[in-house]
Here is the input.
Amino acid sequence: MTEITTEKARIGAPSAQPFINGFTEEGESLSPINSATSRAPLAGEAVKRHSHGGGVGIPDSSRAGRLTSYNLADFKPLTGLEEDWRFTPLKRLRGLHSEVLSGAAPTVTVSGPEQVTVETVARGDKRIGSAGIPEDRVSANAWENFSEATVLTIPAEFEADTEVTVVIEGTSTEAAAQHLVIVANKFSKAVVVLNHQGSAVVSENIEIVIEDGANLTVVSLQEWNDDAVHASSQQAKIGRDAKFKHVVVSLGGDLVRVTPSARFTAPGGEAEMFGLYFADAGQHLEQRLFVDHAVANCTSNVLYKGALQGRNAHAVWVGDVLIRKEAEGTDSYEANRNLLLTDGARADSVPNLEIETGLIKGAGHASATGRLDDEHLFYLMARGIPEDVARRLVVRGFLHEIIQQIKVPALEERLTEAVERELAVTNN
Amino acid sequence: MSTLEIKDLHVSIDTEQGTKEILKGVSLTIKTGQTHAIMGPNGSGKSTLASTIAGHPRYKVTSGTITLDGEDVLAMSVDARARAGLFLAMQYPVEVPGVSMTNFLRTAKTAIDGEAPKLRTWTKDVKAAMAQLRIDADFAERNVNEGFSGGEKKRVEILQLELFKPKFAILDETDSGLDVDALKVVSEGVNRAHEAGNMGTLLITHYTRILRYIKPDFVHVFVDGQVVEEGGPELADRLEEEGYDRYATGAGAATIAAAAQA
Here is the structure.
């Protein structure tokens, strides 16, 4: 990467020099999923050509150089070789990247404290665009095609004692666009649960504004039917001394791709981003997150955990953390753990950490993918516990670390049961 | 009254150099109420015998039998053996992340008894057993063996022995790595389980130290995968004095033994 002209410590970002033929530091450079559709060279070149939107001195592979635009036309048609699409089976997107999204959007039903306002607004509403801007073609396609948006507002200084539940119910599999805006006004405190269910083919943009001193938790549950295809860009803008907790739980759907981001806009912000996914045979569950430390003295902590079982169960986790030059005093950590329960499942895990200043408190990244440990199983079984129960004990324990972060008892209980059901499916 | 009978047991493991025979024909009969000590130098196959009885997949039985009251133990899965009444206190208990001790103990007890223990008495039993073994109450909330010291892990093994009430307990070098105080606490636990009746014990050890606290009825000396000498408790005293040198086989070992005597 001769383009790097500024001083940067870039850990985990793709290298132009593959150290194993056909592989970059990040792993396979050519997605086998999409390779049949193109004759393009390996990703080293492909990544380099994808260089719009950057600026002087920003290497094209830096997350800071990613193209963002409200216009679909600014994004080239996807080939599957793009860095951010290389793991996604485009054929299974059912047109989210290529068709006009004219289907009926899933219905939105909100329940919760009456102080929280819910509005259905037209495209021209001034709150639209306040926290998000598409970063990929599928998100831009939704932005171009949505007809109305739901805006949720948690009033200033209001502390909700029960959660706000947003049921997003899909009823059609015609490709559709969805738009939601969640605004947590100053010093408010609330938990918002987005419950995606039913059948849908939908690209969704969710904008999340956390104003100064607010404390917002957003839990996005994907409990779709087996035929659902869901792409969800969930972008948060975090104000001064604000706290944002984001939990992604993906269990159902044929293809689910969630791309959350947390952008700090003022000092003192705190972001915690958790994820739990359980991929069954044939399921593609993808999560790509971005934490943008653009200002000083903010803290972020990321932990995603997944279990995979069955043939062609596929999970993808890509975590980009960018600590910009201005972001002195940053404290940041990201980790991903995968548990492969059977043969034939695949987990891709790519933690990327870019650090542009040395004046930080800490920055770390970690990733581990493994099987159930035979010695763990032997120990439990040697105490009379049958193998299937022993496996469940270990997997439940593994995933519980994420569930217990939600801190809504009824929801924690429901998710624990959902995990049990997943485990019962194959009885691996 | 139960009987655990091991007859002419041959066990191999797969190594990078090929298959290696570790046990070369071991026969042993243990009855309820008896304590058998198996002693021997490192690498003699003592721990292999323990793991084979428990059913660890690494060890392949090539011939011979293990029966519990006539039932074929070798045909049972690992968990079935435990439910049939065999308990292995492990030499190196593993940490199981994400599974709390409380949950683990209750799940195991339920599996072994075939029904869930009564919640009120069970909680009381666990607390009392922990107190007797001087295990801190907060261990119950921690994950299985996670972050426990070597001595704490051994105490937790004996805690399970006392709670699960097996027909036969196999203690695989439970004494190694324990200081004298911990050794006493652990030995008392084994003796309590023994006095409660209905248990036979196979005590595997390298040292005679633990035999001051747990009195064996029989002592078997293990060398190179075979029992080379058997006797009563007096044999342990003799081993204390003389060590294992006189059992050494092969010219090299014999020379070393001779040199030591010179």
Q: What stands out?
A: DSSP finds eight helices and twelve strands in chain B. The interface with chain A takes residues 54-57, 77-79, 81-83, 88, 90, 93-94, 96-100, 103-104, 107-108, 111-112, 143-144, 160, 164 of chain B (CB under 8 Å).
